[in-house]
Amino acid sequence: MKRCMSICCVCAMALGLSLGVSTDTQAASSVKVIDGSQLTKDAESIGYNQKVARGEDLLTGYSKIVRMGPGEIYAGGTTLAAHEVERIGIGVIIERAKEEDTKWSFYDTWQKFNENADRASSKKYLDVEGDYYYRVRCLHSANDDMSSSFTDGVYIEEP
Question: Which residues, including other chains, have CB under 8 Å from residue 3's CB and lie 6 or more apart?
Fold first, then answer.
């Protein structure tokens, strides 16, 4: 009798786990992704550098986007060096997409460089067209070291 109860418990647990896993998989697959960025209704998103091409000068970098309100965003990023370098910079690229799109479209860009420093930051508040997802992509450089980062797409309502 105890053995029968044990087998029933194990079967019930296995069934519960399999149902839980399939539900999570369905929820995760319903999130749209364009070029590595999830399309979200979150108020903000931060993306950290892709550690592909770092050398001895570049420490890290990040991109950030914040929904300030309908038709308004804060966008920018920061590059950090491991030590003071001759030239450190950040290039900020704003891209946007509709939910039905398959790729991001260019919206705006700017850059900033500092000399004999260990960091470079740049940010802007922008009025943008609503009913789009916006993301920030940054290019980070410290002397000859380069890397990039990008955020998820944040939905911006119409003003």
Answer: none
**CA–CA gap between residue 130 and residue 68 (Å, rounded):** 12
Residue 100 has which token pair? 């039905």
Distance CA 31, CA 52 (A): 26
Tokens of residue 110, six digits: 């700017």
Chain-centroid distance of CA 142 in Å reads 21
Alpha-helical runs (H) found in 2-158: 2-29
Q: What is the pLDDT of residues 115-140, one digit of tens each?
A: 999 999 999 999 999 999 999 999 99
- From the CB of residue 114, how many other CB atoms can be counted at a distance below 10 Å? 18
Q: How far apart are CA 109 and CA 99, in angstroms?
A: 22
Q: Which residues does residue 59 pair with via DSSP β-bridges, in sequence order?
A: none
The pTM score is 0.79
Q: How far apart are the first and last CA of the chain?
A: 67
